[in-house]
Specification:
With about 190 residues, this protein is mostly helical. It contains 4 helices and 2 strands, in the order H-H-H-E-E-H. Helix 1 runs antiparallel to helix 2, helix 2 crosses helix 3 and helix 3 packs antiparallel against helix 4. The longest helix has about 35 residues. The site of one protoporphyrin IX containing FE has 23 residues, from helix 1, helix 2, helix 3 and helix 4. One protoporphyrin IX containing FE binds next to helix 1, helix 2, helix 3 and helix 4.
Length: about 190
């Protein structure tokens, strides 16, 4: 039997299980990462990467890993056809999704470069030492700290737009778009 969205139209095809899992995992990891970022002490010249700052690096490198997996999966698996929508909406969704991928990838790299410029040993999952992204004491690595902060706020704005679009489809258009990111309902 075909499932129907609340406007009576058949629900559009779902994203595959891996895409859905990675999508919601990244949301959960970002909530943790922003909470830690705002709770951790101000990073000064002589700050050591201990306590909450170490957790920020832990979650940051984890997010980078999951985002890389997501991008890899995205390039190798087709996106199922979406709900019908006007051209401008299709285009803005495409642009927002692309920007989300770019920012999700670039943001941790900037944090990493800033950490390296402070002489910190950045470790994947808190264990495997990663190469330095910027030389210790480098000016550009240092400057990327502020950019990292600003881009993190930009990411929040993009997510806000993205969630507003999802809410608009779910409660105003009622076209079943959100279902595409949720597990298929059993018949
Ligand atoms: C998507 C992942 C990440 C998000 C959302 C994020 C978010 C943030 C935010 C919001 C701040 C500013 C905190 C404040 O209010 O002072 C910050 C600072 C910082 N983050 Fe991240 N971060 C991420 C990944 C990383 C990674 C992977 C690293 C390093 C390996 C890192 C290293 C740092 C450092 C060193 C600072 C202090 C920068 C400075 O004040 O100069 N971040 N991060
Ligand atoms: C409550 C939060 C969220 C909701 C309700 C939501 C909902 C959705 C929905 C319904 C889609 C499918 C759109 C379509 O069929 O065209 C989607 C796609 C997507 N979402 Fe989210 N999302 C949320 C949070 C996030 C976050 C935090 C990120 C990343 C920072 C994100 C990144 C993406 C990306 C990149 C796509 C495009 C997938 C692709 O086709 O490649 N979402 N989201």
């Amino acid at each position: 039997m075909t499932n129907h969205s609340s406007n009576g139209l058949p629900t559009p095809p779902h994203y595959d299980t891996v895409s859905r899992f990675l999508h919601w995992t990244i949301l959960a990891l970002l909530i943790s990462e922003f909470t830690i970022a705002w709770a951790m002490p101000e990073v000064e010249k002589d700050t050591r990467p201990d306590g909450l700052i170490a957790w920020h690096l832990f979650f940051g490198t984890l997010i980078l890993t999951v985002v890389l997996l997501r991008i890899l999966w995205r390039f190798t698996h087709p996106v199922p056809e979406s709900v019908p929508m006007p051209r401008w909406q299709e285009l803005s969704a495409k642009i927002t999704h692309k920007l989300l991928y770019v920012v999700l990838f670039a943001l941790p790299l900037m944090g990493w470069a800033n950490a390296s410029s402070r002489g910190w040993d950045v470790r994947l999952f808190g264990t495997i030492s990663l190469p330095a992204m910027a030389p210790k004491g480098s000016n550009w690595g240092h400057a990327l700290g502020d950019v990292h902060h600003a881009v993190a706020i930009g990411l929040l704005v993009l997510i806000g737009l993205h969630v507003a679009a999802a809410v608009y489809h779910q409660w105003i258009l009622r076209d079943g778009l959100l279902q595409r990111m949720l597990p298929p309902r059993s018949p």
